[in-house]
Design goal:
Protein name: Reverse transcriptase
Number of helices: 4
Length: 123
């Protein structure tokens, strides 16, 4: 995401949420054939100006926790999504390079949550 000349990483966005008790999530789309919603972010950008519209069925407001990019964000911090943990545990034993790469791709995203990930996956 780029904002006023700055590139924000996922880590930057998560850092901004530190200490928050309530979360909202808006699914924005660049489609014009759905009802239009206009709003302002804390940076002052207008969604209508950028032709972004919210999909009401995927929007949540005032929640104690939200799922974002496979992580659960709450007042306690950022944690792995339990559904993703279950997918990793149930992943079939790779028998060739392609499924091994798939598994490492899934687990690699969560490496910050897995102590010693580099040593575990060092083949």
């Amino acid at each position: 995401m780029e904002l006023r000349g700055y590139v924000l990483t996922t880590e930057d966005l998560l850092d901004e949420l530190a200490g928050a008790k309530f979360y909202s999530k808006i699914d924005l789309r660049p489609e014009e054939d759905i009802p239009k919603t206009a709003s302002r972010t804390h940076h002052g950008q207008e969604l209508r100006k950028h032709r972004l519209f919210a999909k009401k069925s995927k929007c949540f407001f005032g929640q104690r926790q939200v799922e974002y990019l496979g992580q659960i964000i709450s007042y306690e911090g950022v944690a792995m999504n339990p559904a993703k943990i279950e997918a990793m545990v149930k992943w079939p034993l790779p028998n060739s390079l392609k499924p091994l790469r798939g598994f490492l791709g899934l687990t690699g995203y969560y490496r910050k949550f897995i102590r010693g990930y580099g040593e575990i996956t060092n083949l």
